[in-house]
Recover the amino acids of this structure.
């Protein structure tokens, strides 16, 4: 059964008007347990589903020509993944992890995301500290990859070709023995302990999810040293060596960061620092 949290009862505008020769929907939304759409200029919504089953996690594809959602499968799987066009035509229905598949992992479907026009990522918790992210191909309906993470710290690059995440740490590991790793793609797994950044030492705890640069060539994350509490920003470049930058004095605690082109921006309160591409430290800009 799906976890109740995935059911959405809010009206959410998802799909803008498309080209004239495409199926056009001004919005697609959930009302109760059914999905509706409206056309540009129309005053009434068209009901696309009538099965009465709970639905949630309604998300548009990157090309905005389709949308996907999770439908309650009444125990025949963790949930049905349904891909539909704005006119209500079903593109694909996928039984996600039926009992006969004997696949262990996430207990519920708690997240759904498009990472390309052909692939979805399904996510959910394995236990209170471990998350699982599974790549599903829309064309075949098959699982084509997956990741175990420490918490929900996973992000796809803008084009969906790479992943950055904090690798799995066994749930019952004592706090002082934890060694979370900042990983790219298939670097981390059950058989690859401490093989990425920072290795077995030092003990870093990552305080948020990774964030990709707009060009998809690097991902950054904020880390805190378990012993000293000093904060740093770690940058992992695809195919390159990890880079570590100290968080500037005055920005400790509650650090927010983002990419602006190839530069990293740190904000704390009304203060701001910038790390330019190729620089060795942050400089104050506000």
């Amino acid at each position: 059964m799906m976890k109740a949290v995935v059911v959405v009862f809010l009206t959410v505008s998802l799909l803008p008007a498309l080209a004239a020769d495409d199926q056009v929907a001004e919005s697609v939304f959930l009302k109760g347990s059914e999905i509706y759409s409206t056309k540009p200029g129309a005053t009434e919504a068209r009901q696309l589903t009538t099965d009465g089953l709970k639905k949630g996690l309604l998300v548009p594809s990157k090309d905005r020509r389709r949308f996907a959602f999770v439908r309650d499968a009444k125990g025949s799987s963790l949930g049905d993944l349904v891909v539909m066009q704005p006119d209500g035509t079903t593109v694909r229905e996928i039984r996600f992890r039926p009992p006969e598949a004997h696949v262990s992992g996430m207990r519920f479907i708690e997240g759904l995301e498009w990472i390309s026009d052909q692939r979805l990522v399904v996510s959910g918790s394995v236990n209170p500290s471990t998350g699982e992210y599974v790549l599903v191909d829309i064309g075949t309906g098959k699982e084509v990859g997956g990741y175990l993470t420490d918490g929900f710290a996973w992000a796809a690059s803008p084009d969906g070709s790479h992943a950055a995440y904090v690798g799995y740490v066994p749930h019952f590991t004592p706090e002082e023995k934890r060694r979370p790793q900042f990983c790219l793609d298939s670097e981390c797994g059950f058989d690859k302990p401490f093989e990425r950044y920072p290795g077995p030492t030092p003990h870093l705890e990552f305080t948020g999810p990774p964030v990709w640069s707009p060009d998809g060539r690097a991902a950054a994350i904020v880390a805190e040293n378990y012993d000293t509490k000093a904060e740093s920003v770690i940058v992992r470049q695809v195919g390159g060596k990890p880079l570590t930058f100290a968080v500037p004095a005055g920005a400790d605690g509650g650090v927010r960061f983002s990419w602006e082109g190839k530069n990293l921006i740190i904000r704390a309160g009304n203060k701001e620092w910038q790390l330019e591409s190729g620089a060795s430290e942050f400089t104050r800009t506000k």
User: Anything to note?
Assistant: The longest strand covers residues 143-156. The radius of gyration is 21 Å. Residues 1-21 have pLDDT under 50 and may be disordered. The chain is about 0% helix and 40% strand.
